[in-house]
Structure formats: structure tokens, C-alpha cells
């Protein structure tokens, strides 16, 4: 297979895998689990998976003392982003929530402009305007009713938390740490939020039937481990910018499963809103300097050294 074709295929797979969050989370909700319990087990299962991947790539688990506090902060931001997104599923359709979440690159751009005095370009301003119009179109649901304000607020908290996480890991203190290692420790520290939210696991809700554990494992495997691995391989083949643009498949995947599996409906106005948001964010990532802040995966997996043949 051609290297570029393989790279685009892996990039698409990475984005689609991350968009599978609702596919595995919503059945667990229906089974009686709450977002805190679902995310506790997602993080708990993802930690050893990433640990094995970290070890397989020859990375050290050692962490400098001065990096511990920033790492804990990043973990709390990451877990807050996960929690607020999963809470939003209780108030709105998962496809709409995932599309609204996709405005995080816009928030990254705005943070860089406001707090780090990055120059705003005509492209950035135009993309922000188009994305805002798209959000306005999504604000009224498929049944004509206005989206639940609480649900929208939770998605915006999720998007902002993830934007802050992206900006934070690109600061000088953490920029030298491989992304896989940083993600591993972010999950280790971030799981503390779910431990507290479940009253130190005393109110933890388990799946009622054995096969629901497959959904829990799938959450740790597909949107986490497989998504990271495929993203890294894609960047090695086609570069960071095309891989970031392929991230538009994340909300499309969520919308697809929402419609086909969970019976969520779409109207022409919602379709236009989704297209506007995805187009605006993709144009921003493809043409703006924000790309360097959105995708920092090149150091996540160093190439495996081939053993010399005897």
C-alpha cells in the first residue's frame, strides 16, 4: 500500500476511533451506570494499556520532581474534559455534543491570541465567525426545541478544558516530555477526580451483566490506545496538519452512530450547522499556526528498533 494512502487511512481510523465514545458509553448509561463510574473504569483500564505501550516503545517511566505538579494539573484538566463531555450526554444527543466539542481548536486559537498575544489573522477570525454561526444553528435540536442549556454548558466546559490542556502541554515545562508518557501520567492523576466523585469508590456502579464489561474495555481501547497509536503512525506518514484535519471525522463518527444505532434524528438545519463547524475548524487547522498546538504527537512513539538478525 502507498505510504500516503496508509497515512490517510490511519489518520481516519484514529479520528473515527475517538468518535466512538458515545457508541460504548451510552449503553453503559442505559445499563444503569453513571458517568463517574464509566470514566473511572475507562481510565483504570486505559492506564495499563498505555503503560504497556510506553514500555514497548522503550520509554522510561521516570518523572522529574519539578514536572509532577504541572502533570497533575494536566491530568485534572483532561479528566474534567472527559467528565463534562460524558455528563452532556445526559442532556442532548451524543452527535450534537461531539460536534459542539469540536470547537476546541477555535478555543485554542482564542487562548493563544488573548493570553499569549499571538496575532489573529483574517483566516482565524473568519473561522471563528463561521463556527459560531454553526453553533447557533445547532442550538435548536432536531425536534425544534432549544438545546438544554445545562448540556451545552457541559460541552463548552469540556471543550475549554481540553483547549487548556492542549495549550498547557505545549508550554516549555512539559513540551519536552513524550506525549504518550504525558498522557499516561495525566490519566494516573486524572483518575483521582472519579475516585472522589464516587465517594472513594463506595458509590461506584458496576455493569449489571458481564458483557457490558466489553463496552468498558472498548472505551479504554478504541478512543484511547488505538486512537493515539494510529494518530502517531499517521503523522509519520503524512505529517501533523493532514492528520489534524482528519480529526473532523470525530464528530462525524459520533453523529453516524447516534443516528444509526441510537435513533437520533437530523434535520437539514442541523446538517448545515455540523458542516459549518467542521469546515471552519478544518480550515483553521490546515491554514493557521494553531496546528503546532493542536497536534504534538511526533514524540509519542519513538520508532521501534529492529533487532539485528543473526
Model description:
With 310 residues, the protein is mainly alpha-helical. Helices cover 71% and strands 0% of the residues. It is built from 15 helices and no strands. It has helices at 3-18, 21-30, 35-56, 68-88, 94-101, 104-116, 122-138, 149-169, 172-175, 179-197, 213-238, 240-245, 249-260, 268-287, 291-294. Helix 3 (35-56) packs antiparallel against helix 10 (179-197) and helix 5 (94-101) packs antiparallel against helix 13.
Question: Topology, pairings included?
Answer:
Layout (H helix, E strand, L loop, with lengths): L2 H16 L2 H10 L4 H22 L11 H21 L5 H8 L2 H13 L5 H17 L10 H21 L2 H4 L3 H19 L15 H26 L1 H6 L3 H12 L7 H20 L3 H4 L16
Q: What share of the residues lie within helices?
A: over 70%
> Structurally, how many domains make up the residues?
1
Radius of gyration: 19 Å
Low-confidence stretches are 297-306
Per DSSP E runs of 2 or more residues, the count of β-strands stands at 0
- Oligomerization status of the protein chains: single chain
Morphology: globular
Q: Report the major sheet.
A: none
**How many helices?**
15
Amino acid at each position: 500500500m502507498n505510504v500516503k494512502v496508509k497515512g490517510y487511512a490511519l489518520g481516519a481510523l484514529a479520528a473515527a476511533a475517538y468518535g466512538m465514545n458515545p457508541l460504548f458509553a451510552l449503553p453503559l448509561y442505559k445499563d444503569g451506570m453513571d458517568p463517574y463510574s464509566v470514566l473511572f473504569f475507562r481510565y483504570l483500564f486505559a492506564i495499563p494499556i498505555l503503560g504497556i505501550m510506553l514500555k514497548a516503545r522503550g520509554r522510561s517511566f521516570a518523572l522529574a520532581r519539578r514536572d509532577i505538579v504541572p502533570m497533575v494539573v494536566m491530568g485534572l484538566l483532561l479528566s474534567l474534559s472527559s467528565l463534562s463531555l460524558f455528563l452532556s450526554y445526559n442532556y442532548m444527543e451524543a452527535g450534537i455534543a461531539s460536534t459542539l466539542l469540536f470547537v476546541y481548536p477555535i478555543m485554542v486559537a482564542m487562548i493563544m491570541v488573548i493570553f499569549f498575544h499571538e496575532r489573529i489573522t483574517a483566516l482565524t477570525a473568519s473561522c471563528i465567525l463561521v463556527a459560531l454561526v454553526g453553533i447557533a444553528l445547532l442550538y435548536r435540536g432536531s425536534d425544534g426545541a432549544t438545546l438544554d442549556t445545562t448540556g451545552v454548558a457541559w460541552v463548552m466546559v469540556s471543550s475549554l478544558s481540553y483547549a487548556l490542556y492542549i495549550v498547557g502541554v505545549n508550554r516549555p515545562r512539559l513540551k519536552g516530555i513524550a506525549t504518550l508518557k504525558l498522557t499516561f501520567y495525566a490519566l494516573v492523576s486524572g483518575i483521582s477526580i472519579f475516585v472522589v466523585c464516587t465517594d472513594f469508590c463506595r458509590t461506584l456502579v458496576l455493569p449489571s451483566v458481564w458483557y457490558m464489561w466489553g463496552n468498558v474495555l472498548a472505551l479504554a481501547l478504541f478512543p484511547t490506545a488505538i486512537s493515539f497509536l494510529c494518530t502517531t503512525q499517521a503523522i509519520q506518514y503524512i505529517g501533523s496538519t493532514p492528520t489534524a484535519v482528519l480529526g473532523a471525522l470525530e464528530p462525524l463518527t459520533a453523529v453516524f452512530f447516534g443516528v444509526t444505532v441510537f435513533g437520533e434524528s437530523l434535520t437539514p438545519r442541523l446538517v448545515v450547522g455540523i458542516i459549518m463547524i467542521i469546515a471552519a475548524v478544518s480550515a483553521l487547522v490546515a491554514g493557521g499556526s494553531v496546528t503546532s498546538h493542536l497536534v504534538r504527537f511526533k514524540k509519542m512513539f519513538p520508532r521501534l528498533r529492529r533487532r539485528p538478525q543473526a
